[in-house]
From TrEMBL:
GO terms for molecular function: hydrolase activity; metal ion binding. Keywords: Hydrolase, Metal-binding. It comes from uncultured Frankineae bacterium. PANTHER family: GTP CYCLOHYDROLASE 1 TYPE 2 HOMOLOG (PTHR13799:SF14), NGG1 INTERACTING FACTOR 3 (PTHR13799). One of its GO terms (cellular component) is cytoplasm. The keyword Metal-binding applies. A divalent metal cation binds at residues 66-67, 105, 331, 335. This is GTP cyclohydrolase 1 type 2 homolog. Belongs to the GTP cyclohydrolase I type 2/NIF3 family. The keyword Phosphoprotein does not apply. Homohexamer. Gene3D superfamilies: 3.30.70.120, NIF3 (NGG1p interacting factor 3)-like.
Length: 379
């Protein structure tokens, strides 16, 4: 069976829905024919020229990258700029490009889960949880004999799903009472007379974005001219998705030993790994964030003994929470572990061959320590 690009994109968008991406991000299919067959997929962090050459020369049909090509948009793909040349090379080589960026950052599992796995972290939870799905609860009062029909109708409209269960509802019975006024056409009782009906109180949850459809379906199935009902907005549930991860190390270690461990388990770069804090400080709980993570310093300080991320800037690092050990690695190195996990998941859902690029695309290629530097000179 031929796997087409549209099939692969559908799988990727199920694993990493574009709706999870930040509003400023640029994710999804950048170039490629949805009807084109896909046999081989190359995964890489950056859609830069050397990676594109590897994809085209290696006969890959799709390049899946973490970083976007056009993050800030463009009005031209002419081959007069590095990004334009990338697009032309991909199109000439018959290779599509798809991006999973911040939607992969917050996925469960996502970029930071793969990073956490390098350290054997247990009991993982998001460092900054994403908002859970916005939910409503519909409460409707319906004659007992009509309750099942109304429940079937709202279920078909999208209500009553909880996890892997559907048609979930709660009901109890009681007596409803009303008196139709002039102009009413009641299905029960008569104008001007008090009517009492054995009714069920039916409760179901529903996605907030399905509210209009569910209420419409309820009204259509309900025997009353004016169904009595409430729509309640529920507090957002806790989400397993979000930025960063925090968990327990397999055994306590020191900040110095943990930094050495990071240098061992992360892909090597000229940047290496650096740390800030008391090297003898005991670390039991570690927070991690693949890519730039200094915006989560406060959350890390509340949740962990140490925080490993990339691109820690001078001032945020200088003002980090007291007692929080900092470990700063190369941006590319903290995101590269996710590629293998994404490749496994894509291969499990399709018949395509997946290959993780081993090309180092961290922009820094050499580092020299000042000969005058000494640890004793640090504060």
């Amino acid at each position: 069976m031929t796997v087409r690009l549209s099939d692969v994109v559908a799988v990727l968008e199920e694993l990493y829905p574009p709706s999870w991406a930040q509003s400023w991000d640029a994710v999804g299919l950048v170039c490629g024919d949805p009807d084109a067959p896909v046999r081989r997929v190359l995964l890489a962090v950056d859609p830069v020229a050397p990676v594109v050459r590897d994809a085209v020369d290696g006969g890959f049909d799709l390049l899946l990258t973490h970083h976007p090509l056009y993050l800030r948009g463009t009005t031209s793909v002419a081959a007069t700029s590095p990004k334009g040349k990338v697009v032309h090379a991909l199109v000439r080589g018959g290779c599509a490009l798809h991006v999973a960026h911040t939607n992969a950052d917050v996925a469960d599992p996502g970029v930071s889960d793969a990073l956490a796995d390098r350290f054997g972290l247990r009991d993982l939870r998001p460092l900054q949880a994403s908002a859970g799905e916005a939910l409503d609860k519909l409460v409707v009062f319906v004659p007992v004999e009509d309750a099942e029909r109304v429940l079937d109708a709202v279920t078909a409209a999208g209500a009553g799903s909880i996890g892997d269960y559907e048609r979930c509802a709660w009901s109890t019975t009681g007596t409803g009472t009303f008196r139709p006024r002039a102009g009413a056409t009641p299905s029960r009782g008569a104008v001007g007379q008090v009517e009492r009906v054995a009714e069920a109180r039916l409760e179901v949850v529903l996605p907030r974005d399905r509210r209009a459809e569910v209420v419409r379906a309820m009204r259509a199935a309900h025997p009353y001219e004016e169904p009595a009902h409430d729509v309640l907005e529920l507090a957002a549930p806790a989400s397993p998705r979000g930025l960063g991860r925090v968990g327990e190390l397999p055994h306590p270690t020191t900040l110095g030993e943990l930094t050495e461990r990071a240098a061992e388990v992360l892909p090597p770069t000229a940047w290496g790994v650096r740390c800030a804090g008391d090297l003898d400080r005991v670390v039991r709980t570690l927070a991690v964030c693949g890519g730039s993570g200094d915006s989560l310093l406060r959350e890390a300080g509340r949740a962990a003994d140490a925080y490993l991320t990339a691109d820690l800037r001078h001032h945020p690092a200088s003002e980090a929470p007291d007692g929080l050990g900092l470990i700063d690695a190369a941006h590319w190195a903290t995101e590269h572990p996710w590629l293998a996990d994404a490749a496994r998941r894509l291969s499990a859902a399709t018949t395509v061959e997946t290959v993780v690029s081993d090309r180092v695309t961290d922009p820094w290629t050499h580092a020299v320590r000042s000969p005058r530097w000494a640890r004793s000179s640090s504060p």
